[in-house]
Structures are given as C-alpha cells and as structure tokens.
Amino acid sequence: MSKILIIAEHLDGKLNSSTARCVTCAGQIGADSIDVLVLAADPAGIAAEAAKIDGVSNVLAVARAENAHALAAVCAPQIAAAAKNGYTHVLAPSTTFGKDVLPRAAALLGVAQVSDISAVEGAHTFKRPIYAGNAIVTVEAPAGQILVGTVRTASYAAAAEGANAAPVQALSLDVALPSHTRFVELAQGKSDRPDLQSASRVVSGGRALGSSDAFKVIYALADKLGAAVGASRAAVDAGYVPSDLQVGQTGKIIAPELYVAIGISGAIQHLTGIKDAGTIVAINKDAEAPIFEIADYGLVGDLFKIVPELEQAL
C-alpha cells in the first residue's frame, strides 16, 4: 500500500503549479492515497487551491508563524514529523524550493534521496537524468523505508482541477523548530511577462545577440507571442540579461509548449533544460549548430533580419 505525501510549494499565498505536477507523478506510482502538506503562517487559501487538484485525497494544513517564509531549516523537521504518520513516499518538486528542503528532511528520516525523478517504473523504481541529461539511469530504492524524492516537474503535466475538492485537515505537529536560521529578505525580479518556469511559450536569446541592447528583439518577439523570456548561460555570463532568465542545467529546467531559441548554439547543458518542450524552433546563422539536431523547426540565417520579419508577420 502506497501512501504519498507531497510538499506544497507556494509563494505570496499562491500555490505553485509544480505541486500539481508532483501529483501527476504520484498518480503514476499507483498510490492508494495522495496527501498534500501545506506549511504556512496562514495556509487556508493555499490549502483550498491544493484541494482542487484532481487526485488529491487530503490536504494537511500546518499553521505556524515560523512558516511565514519557506526556510529549509524550519520546514524540514515538520516534513520529517508528518512523514512518520504512515507515509511510504515523500515527494517535492525538483525546484529551488525542493532541492533546498527535501535533502534535509531525508537526512532527518535517515534515508537517501532519489533526485530528479523523470519517469516511474515502479513504486520504488524510477528513471532520472545524469551527465547533464546525456544518459538516463534507472534507480531502485529500498522498499522497506520511506522513499524521499524530488520530481523533475518538466517531465510531468500538471494535474487538472477535480470536480470535487479534497478535505482540508488542520495538522498539529509537536516538533521543536530551530532558531539559528532567520529570514532577512527575498530579492525577487519583477516582470509583466509570464513566469519563465510556468509559461507555455518561451523565447530565448544567446551569445549571438552581442549585447544587452540587442536583446530588445527578443523582448519584442516575446511580447508578440505573449511569451516569457529566457537566455543561454553564455548570454547571462556576458551580462546581457540577469541570471534569473538562464535556461539549462545550471539555470531553469522548463517544458513550455513552444520554445524559440534565437542565436543559441545548443550546448548540452542548455539542451538539458529544454528537452521536454513541446515544439522547439531554432534560429541560428550556423547550419551546423547542435540546436538544430533537436529542433522541430529551424531557420538558418541572420537573426537580426529574421526576427524582425517574424515579428512583423505575427
């Protein structure tokens, strides 16, 4: 019998779509019960959102002032305590949040973590990418202990809203929380464009743009498409755009319906971050660029000529 606990990711009172993607993964494991744990100072609104996800059995809401901000040192003891209530699996998204908090919870539970689950082979057998996505390895975890794992959310579609809301239960955890870690501030980029990790369309630029000023053509096309803006690591390292726009192994792993790569050669680290995209369009003057090997559509030519023409046509 599999009983799965999913750790909800949220910010500013809103549930992140990565939680619904974890529910899809949990459903493939064949769970008898899928519960969502919400840790917040005021979890009511977030819990109500989680309750609407199709496949969720129960939502467990923990209201503590210490949970006003998602600090790994504070969340992990609560996750470990909740997991001991008969759960066989504990899952969280393989995002900055999940990568920060779940290893701590695994350590408190005395188990090893399975990271970046991209496919389910069995209740304790999974596939995950290694070597920057160049290979996929099958991992089997011991069946006699709690399985703690992060889910590669780009590999799963978000579970839809169900017809009926799952029950929300207030959960009280008798656990002492550490005080050595405190929240100072959250520096967060503001943009009118869609969020890069959840956008259905993304337009990315690479080093071939040549300058931050030239990135205007990327922003203009993205605005025409209602898309988020991304960039290769080379463009970020060159200072053309801020690091929060970086797509790839050391940036954001995304799976939009449409990904447009402009002036991006296609290093393996970048391709790792976009391999789950629905349709990939590449524009590059080098016909031998690796990006064309995975692109569904390719345009060989000068991006400064092609992109304005494409924008005009749109």
From TrEMBL:
Record's keyword annotation contains Electron transport: yes
Pfam families linked: ETF (PF01012), ETF_alpha (PF00766)
The keyword Cell cycle is annotated on this UniProt entry: no
Residue ranges of every copy of the Electron transfer flavoprotein alpha/beta-subunit N-terminal domain listed in the record: 4-187
PANTHER family in the cross-refs: ELECTRON TRANSFER FLAVOPROTEIN ALPHA (PTHR43153), ELECTRON TRANSFER FLAVOPROTEIN SUBUNIT ALPHA, MITOCHONDRIAL (PTHR43153:SF1)
InterPro entries (alphabetical): DHS-like_NAD/FAD-binding_dom, ETF_a/b_N, ETF_a/FixB, ETF_alpha_N, ETF_asu_C, ETF_asu_C_CS, Rossmann-like_a/b/a_fold
Keywords, in A-Z order: Electron transport, FAD, Flavoprotein, Transport
Record protein name field: Electron transfer flavoprotein subunit alpha/FixB family protein
Family statement drawn from the similarity comment of this UniProt entry: Belongs to the ETF alpha-subunit/FixB family.
Lineage: Bacteria, Pseudomonadati, Pseudomonadota, Gammaproteobacteria, Lysobacterales
